[in-house]
Write a structure and sequence with these properties.
Layout: H1 8-13, H2 18-35, H3 47-55, H4 59-69, E1 75-79, H5 86-91, E2 94-98, H6 107-110, H7 120-130, H8 135-139, E3 142-146, H9 150-159, E4 165-168, H10 176-197, H11 203-226, H12 236-245, H13 251-271, E5 282-287, H14 296-303, E6 307-312, H15 317-320, H16 331-343, H17 354-366, E7 371-377, H18 381-397, E8 401-406, H19 413-426
Parallel strand pairs: 1-2, 1-3, 3-4, 5-6, 5-7, 7-8
Bound molecules: Double cubane cluster.
Length: 427
Amino acid sequence: MAEEVDYYPMWESLGMDTASHDALLGAVGQMYGSMYLTQNNRPASTSYLDNFATNLHSGAIKEKLDAKESGKAKKIIGSFCLYVPEEIVTAAGGIAVGLCAGADFATDEVEKHLPRNTCPLIKGFTGFKLGRVCPYIESSDLVVGENTCDGKKKAYEFFATQKPMYIMDVPHVRTDETKQMWRNEIHRLAERLEQETGQKITAESLAEGIKVANDKRRALQRLYHARAFDPVPISGLDSLLTVQAAFMDDPVRLTGAINDMAVECEKRGAAGEGVAPKGSKRILYTGTPMAVPNWKLFNIIEKAGAVVVGEECCTGSRYYKDLVDESGTTVDEMLDAIADRYFNIQCAIFTPNPGREEDVIRMAREQHADGIIDCSLQFCTIYEMESFGMEQAADKAGIPYLHLTTDYSTEDAGQLNTRIEAFLETL
Ligand code: BJ8
């Protein structure tokens, strides 16, 4: 039996509030038990995810701190957004970690600094910092933010009083000029990261960073395609957690685990084995990202008897659908290739943003979805705005559509359940 490790000294050395952290871990553990461990007929390879969830705030952080101490990695670099390229972080000797928070914490404290009517994702990460309950935030040496939505960019002004921050300027329209601006911005980030880690980015290290991230994306693409079977071999909940893990877990190890899941799902698909009976209603999710432990909506959909077969969002296809071109040979060429790949992320901060609708309809067809559920976090104006065009696109394609708005509380669970069940009945 593996020896029990005492993680309290590590959490204390990070300056965490261990009593509050115990309460958070207790609540998340309970949620995981009731949402994940009650699922039927999961692929055996998803045991990797259970381990990941168990170790998220303990062994997984220790591994990163140990890598830093041994000199294998120089710095831990946190970020909140898909526009921050992990390839550059790893090429500069950093470890990239995602810091978005999927739960409310220290809300009273948060509301002393941010308006009450702020998106829960923003309040979540601010609360995790103020409550000192997130080892990823506490162990980050530098946090890279970005000018995306108004809420995030203004919240970073406060967050920068709590942690060292560097802000990237993300364009909001796609033209040749803004593409060039964005390339320059990516080059600036590379310089800033080199400065932070003290390690020069070389053609070799950047090529390796690109390959590692692309391999992870290829594995995720393969898993996504395996979900086109009926019955569906893996749940939306497990697929969501797999992408959530991609922001925190060791990339090479995780890629191996995702490939194992994909192989098992392909076999299950061919053998007609699934997590829900053949003919269960199939849902394509689109909308705002879902950070750990925001599993609420998928849990409601799947406990109602449907299954999520794809997710067009930053904790879904936007993370893995496009690869970085691997043909560059110099650092400059590779940085440009990275910039071009990230410039095409279909986030609602861009205007216009027709690619997102096209992706949603394409994915709904690929995965044989019976309906689309488009969900925005409360007070996320840009995704709320896009829901009108999304509904029209779905109508035009003849795919039933439901728009929902929610937050991180459990208060609306009953209401969401009623709306989702009513929607499923119409399919
Ligand atoms: S690339 S989706 S990760 S900006 S939900 S905080 S948009 S008010 S998270 Fe996002 Fe980057 Fe775009 Fe993706 Fe603001 Fe909306 Fe909240 Fe959001």
